[in-house]
């Protein structure tokens, strides 16, 4: 049996507002964003293969070039074209995994700061509990706004933050369990925004692995400077 990672790279990146051509290939301290994730998995030593979900043939060729230079572990790389929505991309990738894969780590490559120690903790948790996710406690004050067309003079209601957790990636699962969960989503025509929600629809619990290392997502142009600062600080 083996462990595999799914690298999600097919997102459109619309919130980058054209600031970069492709956010997962944008340089961060001289390396493409997705290569930072590759290096973290290599250091953690928890997987045997990678499936890359790509957007189009141009992107695939660019990712191949990046991996050819930095795949020091020699992982076999499988390629799967993404779907219309994130869950379609995940479904496509899961269906291409070998039956020999026991556990799968689904990672959004727009999170380049995932730490090797967090990956090892996640690996231990999924082997024990079959489903686990990196997450952090919500510490901000959260408000729910009334439904209006504009943001002006909205009525705000406090949302108690006790028990609130922000989901990160990777999210890790026993392969057969998550494949079946995604199949049922398709049958029932349900939409989800992350992989733990696929299990929630089947009333299956997920272990939270509290992440002590920053693991933000590259979403808007201003995130680039922040991510470079965090990486520089980590490197000392």
TrEMBL record:
Protein name, entry field: 2-C-methyl-D-erythritol 4-phosphate cytidylyltransferase
Keyword Transferase: yes
UniProt feature coiled coil, ranges: none
Keyword Flavoprotein attributed: no
Organism whose genome encodes this protein: Ruficoccus amylovorans
NCBIfam families, alphabetized: ispD (TIGR00453)
Gene3D superfamilies membership: Spore Coat Polysaccharide Biosynthesis Protein SpsA, Chain A
One Pfam family recorded for the sequence: IspD
PANTHER family found in the cross-reference section: 2-C-METHYL-D-ERYTHRITOL 4-PHOSPHATE CYTIDYLYLTRANSFERASE, CHLOROPLASTIC
EC numbers for this chain: 2.7.7.60
Source species, domain of life: Bacteria
InterPro entries: IspD (IPR001228), IspD/TarI (IPR034683), IspD/TarI_cytidylyltransf_bact (IPR050088), Nucleotide-diphossugar_trans (IPR029044)
Enzyme class: transferase
Keywords in alphabetical order: Nucleotidyltransferase, Transferase
Entries under SUPFAM superfamilies matching the protein: Nucleotide-diphospho-sugar transferases
GO process annotations (BP): isoprenoid biosynthetic process
Molecular function as annotated in GO: 2-C-methyl-D-erythritol 4-phosphate cytidylyltransferase activity
């Amino acid at each position: 049996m083996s462990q595999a990672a799914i690298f999600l790279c097919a997102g459109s990146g619309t919130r980058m507002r054209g600031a970069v051509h492709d956010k997962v290939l944008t340089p961060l301290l001289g390396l493409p964003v997705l290569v930072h994730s590759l290096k973290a998995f290599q250091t953690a030593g928890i997987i045997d293969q990678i499936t890359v979900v790509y957007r189009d043939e141009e992107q695939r060729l660019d990712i191949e070039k990046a991996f050819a230079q930095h795949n020091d572990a020699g992982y076999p790389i499988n390629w799967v074209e993404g779907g219309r929505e994130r869950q379609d991309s995940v479904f496509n990738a899961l269906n291409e995994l070998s039956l020999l894969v026991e556990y799968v780590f689904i990672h959004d490559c727009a999170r380049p700061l995932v730490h090797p120690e967090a990956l090892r903790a996640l690996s231990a948790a999924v082997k024990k509990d079959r489903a686990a996710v990196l997450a952090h406690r919500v510490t901000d004050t959260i408000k729910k706004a009334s439904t209006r067309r504009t943001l002006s003079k909205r009525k705000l209601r406090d949302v108690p933050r006790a028990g609130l957790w922000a989901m990160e990636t990777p999210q890790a699962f026993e392969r057969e369990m998550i494949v079946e969960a995604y199949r049922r989503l398709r049958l029932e025509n349900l939409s989800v925004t992350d992989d733990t929600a696929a299990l929630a629809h089947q009333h299956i619990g997920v272990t939270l692995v509290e992440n002590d290392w920053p693991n933000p997502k590259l979403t808007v142009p201003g995130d680039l400077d922040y991510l470079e600062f965090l990486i520089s600080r980590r490197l000392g």
